[in-house]
Structure formats: structure tokens, C-alpha cells
Amino acid sequence: MNFHPFSTLQTERLNLRKTSMKDLEDILFLRSDPTVNKYIDRSPAQKLKDAEDFFNKISKGFDEGKNINWTITYKDNDKMIGSICLWNFSEDEKIGEVGYDLKPEFQGQGIMTEALKAILNFGFEQLKLEKIEAYTHHQNESSKRLLVKNNFKIIKGKIDEYNSNNIVFQCESFHVT
Ligand SMILES: CC(C)(COP(=O)(O)OP(=O)(O)OC[C@H]1O[C@@H](n2cnc3c(N)ncnc32)[C@H](O)[C@@H]1OP(=O)(O)O)[C@@H](O)C(=O)NCCC(=O)NCCS
Questions:
Q1: Exposed (0-12), middle (13-18) or buried (19+): which is 82, by Cβ within 10 Å?
Q2: Which atom of ligand 1 is nearest the CA belonging to 109?
Q3: pTM value?
């Protein structure tokens, strides 16, 4: 994949911009807060250096065409409130995976619904993906609801070989509304 130049996206309320070093404190929060991470299978960040390592990893991945990560902010306030990314692309570049998280005080207000719609459009229209997958814990009700509302369907029989608690969803390009 070639993501250059970075595509900043806007929705009604949100600005989806490139993640930057100024987001490190917020990345640390998002990757360590127990509420945000309740259903996410990753070792929690402990210190700012962990956030910086993650930032360096996604920056390198962006340059290599392996992942594209957006910082979610409100349009009138540049502070990071969450993130959304496309990554884990298939070798033929037709399938990608979406990942997302949001600080607790911003959840339940339709923010990720807005961000996800923009990223699905970008993935299908700009990257020409045919399918976008999402792996989510079977008890993560808000995430499952978010996916179902956005026309993701469970891929029957597909399992996450790394985490048996996850179910795998996919959205096909002609389903974007
Ligand atoms: C999953 C997450 C991104 C959802 O973002 P959000 O902005 O709160 O989602 P929305 O407000 O757009 O809500 C999506 C739907 O889920 C519903 N919902 C929200 N919280 C819910 C909850 N706790 N239980 C059940 N449904 C819930 C909403 O009502 C909405 O459905 P509706 O429009 O039919 O009412 C957010 O909860 C989050 O960051 N969770 C922690 C990180 C995480 O688990 N990421 C997913 C990893 S796979």
C-alpha cells in the first residue's frame, strides 16, 4: 500500500488527522486505561516510552504501507480523544482490518460511528479494498453494535487463532451507506 501523502479526513464533528508526537500522553492513556482496554488483548502501556515505541512502530508501518492510523479529535479542539486505524492488509491488498478506541468520557455519543463511516469510505474508495475485517471480543457490546450498525457481518466459522474470545466481522464494499 502507498498511503502518501497522509489523508486527513473530516466528518460532521470530527477531524481525523495523522498521529503525532504531541499525542503521546493520550496514546499512553488509551493503551493503559482499564476501561478502554477491558476487551482488548494487548499488554497495557506502563510509561511514556511505551507510547513512544508504539508511535515509532506505527510511523514506520505507515512509511512501509503496512498501517494507517488516525488520531480522532473534535474539529474545534486538537486534543486526541481516540484513534482508528486500518492495518493487517492481505498480500493482495484487497482485505484490511480496522481497529479503534475512544476515551471513556467520549463513548456512547456516536463518535466512533462517525469516524468508522469515514474510514470505511476511505478504505473502499481510496485504497480500493474489497473487504474490511474487525476482530472484537464476544462480550464487547458497544463494539459489536458499532460494527453491526455499519453493515459488518460475522464471518461464520472464522476464528481468531490468537484469541478465542474474539469474533470476526467483515464489511464488503457494496454495503457502505
Ligand atoms: C467500541 C467503541 C469504540 C464504540 O465507540 P462509541 O463512540 O462509544 O460508539 P457509538 O457511540 O458510535 O455507539 C455505537 C453503538 O453502540 C451502542 N453502545 C454504546 N455503548 C454501549 C454499551 N455499553 N452496550 C451496548 N451498546 C452500546 C450505541 O448505543 C450505538 O448503537 P445505537 O446507535 O443503535 O444506539 C468504544 O466503546 C471504545 O472505545 N471502547 C473501548 C475500546 C474498544 O473496545 N475497542 C474495540 C476493540 S475491537
A1: buried
A2: 11
A3: 0.95
Please give the distance, rounded to the nearest whole angstrom, from the Cα atom of residue 24 to the centre of ligand 1: 24
**Which atom of ligand 1 sits closest to the CA of residue 166?**
48
End-to-end alpha carbon distance in the chain: 25
CB 106: neighbour CB atoms within 10 A?
13
Residue of minimum CA distance from atom 12 in ligand 1: 110
Domain ranges of the chain: 9-175
Taking CB atoms and a 6 Å cutoff, what residues make up the pocket around ligand 1?
36, 39-40, 100-102, 107-113, 136, 140-143, 145-146, 149
Q: pLDDT by residue (tens digit) across 143-176? A: 999 999 999 999 999 999 999 999 999 999 865 5
d(CA 84, CA 56): 17
Q: What is the pLDDT of residue 147?
A: 98
Provide the CATH topology of domain 9-175: Aminopeptidase (3.40.630)
How many helices (H) and strands (E) would you count in the chain? 5, 8
